[in-house]
Amino acid sequence: MADLDLIPESTLPYPPVYKDKRFVVLSDWDGTITTQDSNDYMTDNLGFGKEKRRAGNLEILAGRQTFRDGFREMLESITANGYSFDACKEELKKNIKLDVGFKDFDTWCRTNDIPIVIVSSGMAPIIRAVLSNLVGDEVANTIDIIANEVEVEPSGKWNIKFRHPSSGFGHDKSRAILPYRDLASPPLLFFFGDGVSDMSAARHADVLFVKQKDDGENDLAAYCTREGIKHIIFRDFSQALKVVQAVVRGEKTPEEVLAAGRV
């Protein structure tokens, strides 16, 4: 496998920053817009399994391993078992579901001129394929995706191409947020996440939403609590929509909704 740490940082472009918006939504994809993390699903079912994957996540949360290296190990366990990239995409299209409230959330944001940008530590071709399968090409093609890419070798073996290979995150999500802070009139930023891959973004949103999971894997919530980062716990986007509407309409301030802590 090629040394991914030697891939230049600039090889993966960013979509344009929305300079004339009052509000922008940035959201993790896996386990946030979807009900299950596609990379966790592949690792648990096609790779080295949930027990080893979960142990790795806890190492990342504790700071003993980088997300980049742990994620790479997860994906290598899938390719080691002989699964092609196309086979993985088809498996995920059959099994990954959309958050029950996301379509209505997306529709309301579109109606109110609020862009939604997916900021993911996953791989853009997988995200695009699954998103199109869930919401249709017409909607999916209008949503910006900032994520890692994939290199597929002639043999069919594939590996991740990290957006920021020298970063311990592989994809440092703060770099998708911080350019908004440099604008003369920056928009108010909502960020949605759920796991260890979102730690790099957690400090930089105006309103941070953290998705509650029933399986106990609430790593971003644990990180934010430990670091004293104010956040709102939500279960699905129908709950989050009410909070976003209240802020956008001026009924509540970001400080007021963050003080509530959950919806």
UniProtKB/TrEMBL annotation:
<dbReference type="InterPro" id="IPR050849">
    <property type="entry name" value="HAD-like_hydrolase_phosphatase"/>
</dbReference>
<dbReference type="InterPro" id="IPR036412">
    <property type="entry name" value="HAD-like_sf"/>
</dbReference>
<dbReference type="Pfam" id="PF12710">
    <property type="entry name" value="HAD"/>
</dbReference>
<keyword id="KW-0378">Hydrolase</keyword>
<dbReference type="InterPro" id="IPR006384">
    <property type="entry name" value="HAD_hydro_PyrdxlP_Pase-like"/>
</dbReference>
<protein>
    <submittedName>
        <fullName>HAD-like domain-containing protein</fullName>
    </submittedName>
</protein>
<dbReference type="InterPro" id="IPR023214">
    <property type="entry name" value="HAD_sf"/>
</dbReference>
<dbReference type="GO" id="GO:0016791">
    <property type="term" value="F:phosphatase activity"/>
</dbReference>
